[in-house]
Amino acid sequence: MPKLTEGARSAEAFRERRRARVKTILTILAALVLAPLTAVAGMAVPGNGYYLSGTLIVLYAIVPFFVSFEGRRPTAREIAVVAVLTALAVAARAAFIWVPHFKPMAAVIMIAGLAAGPQTGFLVGSVAALASNFIFGQGPWTPWQMLAFGVAGLVAGLLADARVFPRANLSWPRRIALATVGFVLIVGLVGPILDTSTFFYLSTAPTPELAAVVYLAGLPVNAIHGAATALTLLVVANPLLDQLARVRVKYGLLDRSRSNCP
Predict the structure, then answer these.
(1) Among 149, 98, 106, which Cα is nearest to 126's?
(2) Cα–Cα distance between 103 and 97 in angstroms, integer?
(3) Mean pLDDT across 84-111
(4) Whether 232 contacts 104, CB under 8 Å
(5) For residues 154 and 215, is the Cβ–Cβ distance under 8 A?
(6) How far apart are CA 120 and CA 82, in angstroms?
(7) DSSP per-residue letters across 202-220
(8) How far apart are CA 200 and CA 78, in angstroms?
(9) How wide is the angle at C-alpha 57 spanned by C-alphas 54 and 59, nearest 5°?
(10) What percent of the chain has pLDDT over 70?
(11) Which of 17, 109, 180, 230 meets the CB 3.0–4.6 Å disulfide criterion with 125?
(12) Rounded to two decimals, what is the model's pTM?
């Protein structure tokens, strides 16, 4: 079989990236069309139809990230690293199962996003939420948790892409800043997404009063979750990022996932 020239390989790689991009765009467009149709259909379902439609819309938001990741044909070594990061995130949640609301999992997911980029950060967060619920219990809240923890990895990856944080060798001021961002991210975004799931799950007739009760009741829980995330980032961010940097340099892994958000 004749060997491809450098130009031919570059052209083939470009065509593969273009096909993956088109596939992702079509998936997003399909989700955008399905979302309003699902919302309208949910209104016609008696009882908690809006909760079912909301859960489906959350799934529509998650699917493009998986399609995009699959479309760029990751190597076996890259998949192995992603699997290890996901397992580490699951272990971080399971290790503190007896401590209420103390979940270091989001910190590991943020580290994955910093090291590997926003797309892989979202993937690690989503799969870790799904996998850890085989321990903590699956339910209609699972897609919301997949979205919430995926967003944590996505935001961390975007911050690294914007050079707000380096991908390794964080100084103490940067570590403190990262821990602060982790706390704010949990309390201000990840926690409210999880609370929204609770709000829909508990309600048969959503009202502003019920929403206020649910979100205010969730604030102390989110604060504990945020503190666990900040503490974990302070302690393990640098060692884990340094190890991932060595893997990236030695095997040339994780670089292709940077800035590849759908």
Answers:
(1) 149
(2) 8
(3) 89
(4) yes
(5) no
(6) 7
(7) H-SS--HHHHHHHHHHHHH
(8) 37
(9) 115
(10) 72
(11) 109
(12) 0.79
Tokens for 155?
């935001």
Q: Which residue has the tokens 């938001």?
A: 61
Assess contact for 113 and 156: CB atoms under 8 A.
Answer: yes
Comparing 74 with 122, which gets the higher pLDDT?
122
Among all chains, which residue has been given the structure tokens 């996505």? Answer: 154
Most distant pair of Cα atoms in the chain: their distance = 70
Q: What string of DSSP letters covers the chain? A: -PPPPHHHHHHHHHHHHHHHHHHHHHHHHHHHHHHHHHHHHHHHSTTTHHHHHHHHHHHHHHHHHHHHHHHT---HHHHHHHHHHHHHHHHHHHHTTTSTT--THHHHHHHHHHHH-HHHHHHHHHHHHHHHHHHH--STTHHHHHHHHHHHHHHHHHHHHTTSS-SS---HHHHHHHHHHHHHHIIIIIHHHHHHHHHHHH-SS--HHHHHHHHHHHHHHHHHHHHHHHHHHHHHHHHHHHHHHHHHHHH--SGGGTT---
| Token pair of 14 as six digits | 């470009």
149: its two tokens: 């923890």
Distances 149 to 30, 117, 138 between C-alpha atoms, Å: 23, 15, 15
